[in-house]
Give the backbone structure.
Amino acid sequence: MENRGITIRFLPEFGNVDVARAAVGGACVAAFSGRQAAGRTDEFLLAVTEAMNNAVEHSGARLVEIDLLMSPEAVTFRMHTEGDMFDPTKGASMPGMDGDDAPEGGFGMALMKELVDRMDYEYKDGRNTLTLEKRF
Amino acid sequence: MEIKVGMDGDIVIVELTGDLVASTADQLKAQVSGLLSKNFRFVLLEMSKIGFMDSSGLGACMAAHKSLAESGGMLVCARPSEAVGKIFRITMADKKLSVAHTKDDGIKTLLSKVIEARQK
């Protein structure tokens, strides 16, 4: 497969995350096709969804921009938001399930970390860039 | 997301069709709150028609489990897909949630809880 890519910009609303997920999902089906990797597509799509949900819920950005790059080696998702820097290590551990309480949130960052092969974060000139990569 | 509700004795069967995600998770929370307000405490969540679930959907399941358990009831998540079941496993939510692989198993688990509640 040759290198391919798409870019999507959306207003930070959960309904728009659904639309963006559908587009990324369609692209992933094509990218992972024939690689016996249905489970890996699901994992990547979940990680990407968690990233976009976090941007909608926490970034305060007025616009979310995502790039999806597909190469013969990997699928790479980059999400750009303007706003305050965030700490990618915060919430990177799965909430504990051993106590009496049942946690209702705090799974997003930990799931992202668990489901992709590479997760990078960069803050430059007021712009956050989160990169998630899944290799074939 | 579509929600269908059915009754089997004291057990309420809530069937979800579509995606259980951030944009829809509140529908499940509202459904369970509504059931609790009418004193229905034993709920089987039929998950086989959920196409995609994210951590907000998981959070809604955990919230439903918590509110039903606090009222002396129970939630059983029945027939999750492989992808949904994997989220339960990775997050270890299956330590808290009761997960059934068939509807019959889920009903049996809930019936035991109903009998236990009646004997108290």
In short: The first helix of chain A runs from residue 14 to 32. The interface with chain B takes residues 14-15, 17-18, 21, 39, 42-43, 45-46, 49-50, 53, 56-57, 94-95, 97-98, 102-105, 107-108, 110-111, 114-115 of chain A (CB under 8 Å). Chain A has a mean pLDDT of 89. The radius of gyration of chain A is 15 Å.
